[in-house]
Amino acid sequence: MGGTVSTRHDIGREIAELKRRLYELECTTSAHEADEPLPLAGEIQAVVCRVEQTRVALPLDVVERAVPAAAMAPLPEAPPWVHGLLNLRGRALPVLDVAARIERRGRTLDLDDQIVICRHAEQRLGLVVQEVLGVSEFALGERTNGPGASLPIAPYVRATLRDAKGLVLLFSLSRLIATSDIPPLDEPPEAERAGHEETPGR
């Protein structure tokens, strides 16, 4: 009986921590809505991924690593594109599904999916993609017109780049993880928060 109560308490603390982190992401995203303009020339290194049938990229400096898809604790009241809580080396990270976020719908996690661990405004989170293709360098001077504004993916694209295989959509992480449509989240008590504080690191 005691073990069951303890387990429920631990799960409650983990959910409270995830809610706090989503709340912080909402605040930091609102404060950083405008992306800094990309230089007109030079190169950018980015991690190229496949989201459904589209090649997308995330700046290398915001990506920590990629991990296989894994079971997660659900987050009550979160939108359908938030899969829940991933326990990564004892650290609770919110995980968003990129394809589901773009289409604003739910999506079942596939065993072949991968989770890209990213850092945004001193917070860490996971992004579900279908495949991580590798790291590439792109010439910023060869940017082309982005996807049409009417396409669901358009609001999340910072720039359209090109490599030998064709076009790659460079995502804006701040736009992708905007959480303004998540219901208001209660912050955990100070005692619970102190028990989970940890300085993020690579």
Automatic annotation (TrEMBL):
UniProt GO cellular component terms: cytosol
Region (Disordered): 182-202
SUPFAM superfamilies: CheW-like
Ranges for domain CheW-like: 43-182
Source superkingdom: Bacteria
Alphabetical GO biological process terms: chemotaxis; signal transduction
Ranges of Basic and acidic residues composition bias in the record: 190-202
Entry-linked InterPro entries: CheW (IPR039315), CheW-like_dom_sf (IPR036061), CheW-lke_dom (IPR002545)
Protein name according to UniProt: Chemotaxis protein CheW
Organism: Polyangium fumosum
Taxonomic path: Bacteria, Pseudomonadati, Myxococcota, Polyangia, Polyangiales
